[in-house]
Amino acid sequence: MASAPARASDPRARAPPHPLVRCAFRRPPRRAAAKALDDAQAAGADLPPLLAAPFVVADHLETSTGVTSAGLGFLDEWEAGVDAPVVLAAQAAGGLLVGKANIAELGFAATGVNAVFGTARNVRHPTRRAGRPNPRRPYPARPLRQPRGRPRETAPPRRAHAPPMTGPSLFFLKCPPSPQPYKRACIAGSGVASAVAARMAVFGIGVDGRGGSTVRVPAALCGVVAFRPTRGRLPGGGSLTISPSSDSVSVVTRSVGDAWLVDRALTGAASTSAHDSVPAGTPLAGVVLARPTGPVWDDVDDDVAAELGRAIERLEAAGVVFVDVEVDPSAVAGVGGGPLPEGAVVGSDAAGTSALIGASLDAREAVASVSEYFWERGAATSIIDLVTAVQTQPAQSRLYRQLRGDREGYATREAAASALCHGREALRAALAASLEAAGASALVWPACRSVACTVDAAEDPDAAAELEERLQSNASVASNGGLCSVVLPCGAAGSGPGRLPVALEVALPEGRDDELLMLALGLERALPAMPAPRGM
C-alpha cells in the first residue's frame, strides 16, 4: 500500500471476484471517482493518502448507494441514502468503496452465522477453495450427463464465480447459504475480514462492539490485522449497532503498516502524498508485556496454546520480556475510595467481569440502540418487527426473550446500571493498575481461545452458546476495559494445508493509540508473516 499505486481505472487495480461470494452489482459505478484520481495524478496535483485503495465496509454502516441490512433479511430493502461519516472520510482520503460485507444478524454472533444471507467462510481453509479465477482457463461448456439412450444437452458455461467487474462498482459481499460440500469449510466471523484476507480489498471498516464480533474476532480467525482505536478517534455514527457504550469504528488490514496508514488517513494526520513511509516501530529490546492471569490465558485450546508458545519464544528472542499480572476488579476501591457496593457487577478476573458486564448490558443496549436508530430516521417499523425476523439462536436469545415477554436472561435495570457504574470502571481501573505495577508497555492475551470451527459446527444451535463464549470472551476485555487494541496474527495451528490462524491481542488504555501502533509494528516484524491464502 505504501508503494506506487497503479492507475485507479486500470483493470489490474480492481478487486478480484471471489468464487463463493454472491456479488450483486449496484449502480452507479465508481468510474468517475477513479477517473478523477487518474487525472489528478497525471496533472501532478497533490494526491490523497489512500489513492485508489479499494475498501469494503460492514453491512451495518450506512452507504448512499445500496441497502444497509445489518445482516437482516427484514431490512434487505432498507436504503439509508447517506454515507456514514467514516465512509465519507475514507472516500475523501482517496479510497474506493467496492462493497459491503456480510455480518451476522445485528452483529450478535462472532461466528458470523447468518441464516438469511449465508455464513461467511474462511479463505484460509482448503475446502474454501478461495482464489482468483484464471482468465486464461475459462470454464468451457460441457455436455450434461444423461442416462444412456437420451439425447445430450449442452450445459451453459459454469458460473462458479461472479462475472468480471466492469468498473469499481458497489456490490454486496453476501454468501448464499452454504451448500452441503462446503459444510467442512471454516467460518470467517464476518465478510470484512474474509474480503481483506482474500485480497478483495486493501482494508475494511466496521464497528467493533463489546464482543469484537464484527472486526477483531473475524480478523483473528482469518489471519489479518484489526485495529480497534480509542472510541471517537475515527468518525462515528451512521450505523445500526447494538452496543453504543463500547462501540468503536475499527479497521481491518493485512498488516500493521497498512493499519497505520489507514488510521492516519482517516484521522487527517496523513500528508497529501500517497507514499508515506511506514515507520520501523518500537525497538523490542527491553519491552515488557503483561499477561493477565486466569482464563484469558489458561482456558485456550491445546493447539492454540502450542502456537502461542512458539510466538512467545520468537518475541523473547527479540528482547521482549513477559510478566504475569493479576487483574482483580473485585479488589478495586469504589467511588470515594470505599469498597464496592454489595451486588456490584464484578468478578475476580478480567474475563469473568467482562462476561458479567456483557450479560447485564447486551440486551438492554440492543433494544435501545436499534429503536433509536429507526426513530431518528422516521422509519415505520418497530424493534419487535425486527427481532421477529432474527433467526439465529441462541446468540440473540436474551433480546428475543425480552421482546416476547420472557424476562429470563434479561438483566434488571439495577444490574445494568451497576455494570456501567461499577463493573466497567472497576475493570478499567484493575487493568490500568496491573499495567502500571508491572511497568509494562502493554497488555497481551490470545485474541481467541479457539481457531475457526467448521460452518457445520457453527450452525449447530446446541453448540452455539459455548462456541460464542470461547470466541468472544477475550475480545470483550478490551471493549469493556476501555482499551485500544491491535489483533496481530502470530502463526497457524494444526498441520498440513489446513492450518488455521492464531492471533495475539495487544492492548493499551484509551488515548495511547499511536504508542500502540508503534509497538505493534515492532512486534509484527518479529513474528512470522502469514502466507497468502492458496491461489492468491
Characterise the protein shown here:
With 536 residues, the chain is an alpha/beta fold. It has a single domain, classed as Amidase signature (AS) domain (Amidase signature (AS) enzymes, Alpha-Beta Complex). The longest helix is centred in the last third of the chain and has 27 residues, at 350-376. A 12-stranded mixed β-sheet has the order 1-4-3-2-5-7-6-11-12-10-8-9, sandwiched between helices. The radius of gyration is 23 Å and the shape is globular. The relative contact order is 0.15. It has helices at residues 31-42, 85-92, 191-197, 216-222, 256-267, 295-298, 302-317, 350-376, 383-388, 397-403, 413-438, 455-458, 464-472, 475-480, 513-526; strands spanning 22-23, 54-58, 96-101, 171-174, 203-208, 225-228, 248-253, 288-292, 321-325, 442-446, 483-493, 500-509. Mean pLDDT is 78; it is low at 1-28, 128-172, 175-182 and 391-399. It has 15 helices and 12 strands.
Question: What's the topology here?
Answer:
Blueprint: E1 22-23, H1 31-42, E2 54-58, H2 85-92, E3 96-101, E4 171-174, H3 191-197, E5 203-208, H4 216-222, E6 225-228, E7 248-253, H5 256-267, E8 288-292, H6 295-298, H7 302-317, E9 321-325, H8 350-376, H9 383-388, H10 397-403, H11 413-438, E10 442-446, H12 455-458, H13 464-472, H14 475-480, E11 483-493, E12 500-509, H15 513-526
Parallel strand pairs: 2-3, 2-5, 3-4, 8-9, 8-10
Antiparallel strand pairs: 1-4, 5-7, 6-7, 6-11, 10-12, 11-12
